[in-house]
Write a structure and sequence with these properties.
Elements (H helix, E strand, L loop, with lengths): L1 E7 L7 H5 L4 H14 L4 E4 L7 H9 L4 E4 L7 H4 L7 E2 L4 E2 L1 E5 L2 E5 L9 H10 L6 E4 L12 H4 L4 H9 L5 E5 L6 E5 L2 E5 L6 E2 L8 E2 L2 E10 L2 E10 L3
Parallel strand pairs: 1-2, 2-3, 7-8, 8-9, 9-11
Antiparallel strand pairs: 1-14, 4-5, 6-7, 10-11, 12-13, 14-15
Length: about 240
Amino acid sequence: MIKKIAHITDLHLDEEFSIGIKINTRKRFDMILESIKENEINEIICTGDIGINKGVDYFFERLKNMNLSVTMGNHDDFFEISKYYSLGADYELNKIYKSRVYGQYKFIYLDSSTGYIDDKQIEWLKTELKSSRPLMIFVHHPIFATGLKIDEIGQLNNSNELKKLLIEVPRPIHIFCGHYHMESSLVHKNIAQQITPAVVFQVKKSIDKIDLDASISGYRIIEIKNSELSSKVVYLNHAD
């Protein structure tokens, strides 16, 4: 049996910047959700930058009948998100992180909303990584750099610490993340990192500048069949 999960990220619902460039963020989210349903997927993992104010209400209302897991991004507010989603909430740090077993895999959800993984999470992660299962990590920020211009403004502050920790794990690790508003894949030793395109708009791949592409939304479908893992990106085009 194949299990399918939709990975979505960077919706930025109701945020002023998106409105200023004439993007209807709710419409784009609705179109992504319709595509997810057409692909007969009922499980969604969102890796942050959900939105602000009533946009957060809209997000959780639209997904109330889905199996939903959430990690926070740098645009998210802990107190706003935790009103609706508190699984793994750490009220001392104001962060959300947790793990669970999913089939033959262990899923780890990290909170990089402050731009780094704090010491308490690092110590917790060290214990979680001792699992004998292959690991899937969901986090907002990429851990490995892309070599593109966006690394200069978007890279996780303590990425080197995370990389060293993950490379020492003697089993495969799959990282699924967002933040960069683009699709990107890389493999380093035991680790495969997949950056999923944004729901709201994309950033063009460039080594010397940052340009937006507001014509495309995207999400990723992750498929698990026993111990085999694969994924593909789905893009939707927009006229608005």
